[in-house]
Amino acid sequence: MNAAVLQQVNTLQVNPLSAHIGAEIHGVDLTQPLDAQRVAEIRAALLRWKVVFFRKQFLTHEQHVAFSQQFGELTVGHPVFGHVDGHQEIYSISKYRKATRFQGEALLRPWTGWHTDVTAAVNPPFASILRGVTIPPYGGDTQWTNLVVAYEKLSEPLRHFVDGLRGLHRFAPPPGVKATTEYDANVKQTALLTEHPLVRVHPETGERALYVSPGFLKSIIGVSPRESQAILELLWEHVIRPEFTVRFKWEPGSVAFWDNRATAHLAPTDILDLEFDRQLYRTTLVGDVPVGPDGRPSLALEGSPVIAAQAIAQN
Ligand code: SIN
């Protein structure tokens, strides 16, 4: 797959940023409609590098939506936490957005905060596109990890073992903190609980990804609570190994476009120790239902699939 993908990438400049994940793409203006060749090249780079970055792309909300639509249907900004007024496909990533969700001191573990977007849904968004508007002069970097390479780097017996497991994903406060009434109300209004395979077969590349979104995956089905916790901690610790990751330094006008079927990411918390503001905006593209190595799809236990924002508008 990789050789074929690389052959297609021939008019844009794709500069890899680490061995396994992340590439900067140069030579394209995202404010303008793209021709089919450019769309194919960006998509190929996304599949190869899992997250791609663009610089100096000063998009309006409308241009952000138009760029995103060239790669799929857009969801509403966030199925649980809403959208920017007047722009139903745009989700605001502001500095203090998490402050309205939790109270207390979280039990911080190395994987705390790492997640894949909205895996509590039966069809999590296939990709997310985040653009930086107000960026601190230092601090506020985002990190991504490659869940395909994480799977491939497990030992063969462990790969075989996790291939057959499934887990429960839902929105819930991290250990140690309490949900605010606002968070509880949001989560109850759009209850989402899904059984996903722990190993997801990528629908486009056929690669297997260790699909263990730390923020949403609460337990493994069919094993004891202690076994579940121990296995998950082993896998979470593994997926965030630094050699599987890339760290991105934002500038105003930066855009990050990542494949949620093959990555998890970590929003920064160091910004809370700095006086600078940070404001980004995100779109997400409607995803399909994950399938495990045994061909079994994920199962919605509560809630409906995330549908296109346009379909909601038409109802
Ligand atoms: C996100 O989780 O999508 C936001 C990442 C960030 O704030 O850098």
Architecture overview:
Helices cover 23% and strands 24% of the residues. The chain is an alpha+beta fold. The protein has one domain: Clavaminate synthase-like (Double-stranded beta-helix), CATH 3.60.130.10. The strands form five sheets. It has a seven-stranded mixed β-sheet with strand order 1-2-3-15-6-17-4, with helices on one face. A hairpin with a 6-residue loop joins strand 1 and strand 2. Helix 1 packs antiparallel against helix 2 (36-49). The N and C termini lie far apart (40 Å). The model has no long low-confidence stretch (mean pLDDT 93). Succinic acid (SIN) is lined by residues 93, 128, 130, 142, 265, 267-268, 280, 282. Residues 93, 128, 130, 142, 265, 267-268, 280, 282 line the site of succinic acid.
C-alpha end-to-end distance: 40 Å
Question: How big is the Rg?
Answer: 19 Å
Which stretches are poorly predicted, pLDDT < 50 over at least 5 residues?
Answer: none
What is the structural class? alpha+beta
Break the fold down into its secondary structure elements and pairings.
Blueprint: H1 2-8, E1 13-16, E2 23-26, H2 36-49, E3 51-54, H3 61-69, E4 91-94, E5 102-103, E6 127-134, E7 142-146, H4 147-152, H5 156-163, E8 166-170, E9 178-179, H6 181-189, E10 193-197, E11 199-201, E12 208-210, E13 217-220, H7 225-239, E14 245-248, E15 255-259, E16 263-266, E17 279-285, E18 299-302, H8 309-314
Parallel strand pairs: 2-3
Antiparallel strand pairs: 1-2, 3-15, 4-17, 5-9, 6-15, 6-17, 7-14, 7-16, 8-10, 8-13, 10-18, 11-12
Helix pairs in contact: 1-2
Bound molecules: succinic acid.
